[in-house]
Fold AAA family ATPase.
Amino acid sequence: MSDTDRGTASVVAFAGATGGAGTTRTVVEVAAALAADGREVCVVDAAYATQGLGEYLDGRLAPDVTALVTDERDADLGAGLVEMDLGVSGRVAAAPANAPFERLARAKTVEAAEALEARIETAAARFDHVLLDVPPIAANQAVAAVNAADRIAVVAPGSDRGTEAVQRTHERLADVGAEASLVVAVRGDGVGDLSIPATKATDAAAAPACLGATGAFATAIERVAAAAVGEEIVVPEADSGFLGTVGEYVGR
């Protein structure tokens, strides 16, 4: 990416159509793929209840994102970011949720949701891409996240259950004045514009599994990453590389 492009970030919300869809893992893998292409990526956890993003991080998780939108609103965003050591040319910094129930409740208020949008705006000014890990649309922070996004990728199981959940998600997005740009099916291809096959590297410690890998899983992550940020990046010859051309999926 050129120096002039680094000032414009793309905010992408990955919204789970249902619990257990694999949204957090998808976000982590896509962030790693973008970083491998030299991008600087910020991952913001809006899935306060499950707090799954923290499982992929090492070191301190405080102040977490819920503190940044409640008790520590005056703190710089950087205070709550945890760097992921990926050994690639780019960078991934994450703002995880890691909070007691009392603060989780306060982080779900309308006022805190507005603060979350402000934090996302700050991240967008500092990073090439901001990826949001969003739970099913049923709480203020989830609504704030999708409203702050330039693009929304709905993540769902590739199954009949996923098909029904995607339809509900489309309806909920419409209720809050938003719409999906992309639907990603995980562990199957029953729904979606793109699909991500299952991987044997299921543990958080094994993620991201797309780095330095070949095969269907890595290729799928590359395609989802390219489609999510809405950029067509041409890789020479037939080598897909990271962020290969996605043609019809760009600009949906």
Observations:
- The mean pLDDT is 87.
- Strands lie at 10-16, 40-45, 82-84, 91-95, 129-134, 151-157, 182-186, 194-196.
- DSSP finds seven helices and eight strands in the chain.
